[in-house]
Structure formats: structure tokens, C-alpha cells
Amino acid sequence: MAFRIFNTSTAVFLESFDAPGLFRHAGPEFRFNDLFTAADPLAYITNLYESASAGLSFDPEIPYQAPIGDQEVWAAGVTYFRSRTARMEEAEVAGGDIFYDKVYEAPRPELFFKSTAAKVRGMLDHVGIRHDSTWDVPEPEFTLAINAGGKVFGYTIGNDMSSRSIEGENPLYLPQAKNYTGACAIGPCLVVGPMPSPETKISITISRGGQEVFSGDTSLSQIKRSFDELAGWLFKCNHFPTGAYLMTGTGVVPDSDFTLQVDDEIAITIEGVGTLRNTVEKV
Ligand code: DO4
Ligand code: MG
């Protein structure tokens, strides 16, 4: 049993994997914080779905808000071999490459704060590239929903927008490369239910003036660490009263000659979740 939760500007809708295309209204009392603080979020959403009014339909290709309450968004880095290699290339001149190799192998993962809830962008919203950056990429990431007790109960799509020029100049600039206006998008919905199979694909396309300028994909099987391991490290010595989202790292990095431009259209697809679409703006 699994459900998708869509956060539109007027209402929150629930869709069961068993009845695709049929949406139920979660009701005016629904709060993402209640879901993220439930001891058993799947049971919570199952009860809500069963008591909700049936038969509503809406167009899933509309702008939505991110499926978020007060959760902080964190991110894991260098969890795929491709990310390790790309980072080592971009940091080589500054002498920072060794840190990426070390963290890929180390028991402790790289975890960094990505966004407050209020700054997260949703489906069909803009994502940002910094005006003081010269080399920018989106990072398509399988993103975990974790309840206040540290239990992974769902997943969505995250875009960890990144400045490669700023991070490459000095790894200590990471917060500026990763955390700025429009740097984080999540959506189009939250899936509550068991984790998908390791064969699940994460794919991205970037279009410019209607032409595709980059596409790539990976699968969950390529990630080096388990989801429970990453969530365990995040919740070690850190308390999240309303739970958290955790992006699990990128396995797709465009070649070094690629950088995003204003008005580029980014589409990230993960089977079971759907497609998160955003357009690039300069901030
Ligand atoms: O080490 C920098 C960030 C890595 C990252 O964001 C990723 O691998 O996805
Ligand atoms: Mg990333």
C-alpha cells in the first residue's frame, strides 16, 4: 500500500497506488507536520484516505507547492561514484579533490543543511542560479521523508541546485554553493509507503528554447549507502521535532563544459513519484 500526496494552493489531495487517477481531498485540517510527527505515517495516511471524500479529479500538471510543513531539508553528498569523480575534477586545481575521495570511502557520510521549508520551491516554480557563479547544474536526487522519530516513511524528488564554480574554488564555500535563493526544489508530490526497488530510475532532461541540451539517468542501485544509514547519521545528535527531508545525493552530473542558463527547463523523473519541472532564473 502506498499513497501520493499533492499540495496544491487550494487543497491537499491523496491518490492511492491502487486507484491511480482518483484523488481524494485530505480535508482542511490536514497538516504535513501531523504526518511527519505520526509514529506510523503510513497508517496515518491510510486512515485519512479511507475517511476522505472520493472521486475528485484534478490535472497533475499544474503548479503545486512543495509537500512540506516545517521540515528542514538536508542533503547527503558524494554518495554515487559519478559525484565523487565530478567533484574531484572540479576541485583539483584548488587542491580540494582529496576530500571527496575520502568522504566517499569514509563511514561518516557528507551531510549538509540545504533549506528551510519556507524557501523550498515546488512544481513549475523557478529554481535559481547565482549571479556571482559561472558554472551551475541541477542535481536530481531521490529524497527521503523522515518522521520525528527518525523513521524513513516516504520519498519524493529533490533538486539540489549547485554552483560548481563556487564549490570548486574552495570546499569551504559549500554553503554558498548549495544554499541560496531558489537552490532547492521538491515535488511534485510526496509518496508515503515502502521504498521502491533498487532498479528504480532517476532521470533528468534540460531543455533550452525547446531543444534538449542535456539528459542523463542513474538508478537507486548505484548509491553507495543505504537510506536507513543516511537517516541514522542525520538524526545522530540532532533532533528534528517535525521530521526532515533528506536528499540522498546525485548520480548524474553533466560533463564539465555544461552550465545552466536563464530560462532552461529542468525535468526530473523518478518512477512512482512523477516529474518535477522547474525553470531557471538568475538570483
Ligand atoms: O560535496 C559536495 C556536495 C555533493 C552533492 O551535493 C552530491 O553528491 O549530490
Ligand atoms: Mg547534491
CATH superfamily of the largest domain, by name, is Fumarylacetoacetase-like, C-terminal domain
Q: What summary fits the major beta sheet? A: 9 strands, mixed
Q: How many domains comprise the coordinates?
A: 2
Mean pLDDT: 95
Quickly name the level 1 CATH class of the largest domain: Alpha Beta
Structural class: alpha+beta
Distance between the amino and carboxyl termini: 41 Å
Q: What global shape is seen?
A: globular
Q: Point out poorly predicted stretches.
A: none
Strand order of the largest sheet: 3-2-1-11-9-8-14-4-5
Oligomerization state: single chain
CATH domain fold name of the largest domain: Fumarylacetoacetate hydrolase, domain 2
Strand content: 25-35%
Give the topology.
Elements: E1 3-7, E2 12-16, E3 23-25, H1 32-37, H2 41-51, E4 72-77, H3 81-91, H4 97-105, E5 110-115, E6 126-129, E7 136-137, E8 140-146, E9 152-160, E10 162-163, H5 164-169, H6 174-178, E11 184-192, E12 201-208, E13 211-219, H7 227-235, E14 244-247, E15 265-270, E16 274-282
Parallel strand pairs: 4-14, 6-16
Antiparallel strand pairs: 1-2, 1-11, 2-3, 4-5, 7-10, 8-9, 8-14, 9-11, 12-13, 12-15, 15-16
Helix pairs in contact: 3-4
Bound molecules: 2,5-dioxopentanoic acid (DO4) and magnesium ion.
Magnesium ion binds at residues 75, 77, 139, 141, 160, 249-250.
Describe the protein's architecture and organization.
With 283 residues, this protein is α+β, with helices and mostly antiparallel strands. The chain folds into 2 domains: 3-51, no CATH class; 72-282, Fumarylacetoacetase-like, C-terminal domain (Fumarylacetoacetate hydrolase, domain 2, Alpha-Beta Complex). Helix content is 20%, strand content 33%. The chain has 7 helices and 16 strands. It has a 9-stranded mixed beta sheet with strand order 3-2-1-11-9-8-14-4-5. A 5-stranded mixed beta sheet has the order 6-16-15-12-13, with no helix packed on it. A two-stranded antiparallel ribbon has the order 7-10. Strand 2 (12-16) and strand 3 (23-25) form a beta hairpin. The longest helix has 11 residues, at 41-51. The radius of gyration is 18 Å and the shape is globular. The mean pLDDT is 95. Magnesium ion (MG) binds at residues 75, 77, 139, 141, 160, 249-250. The site of 2,5-dioxopentanoic acid has 11 residues, from strand 4 and helix 3.
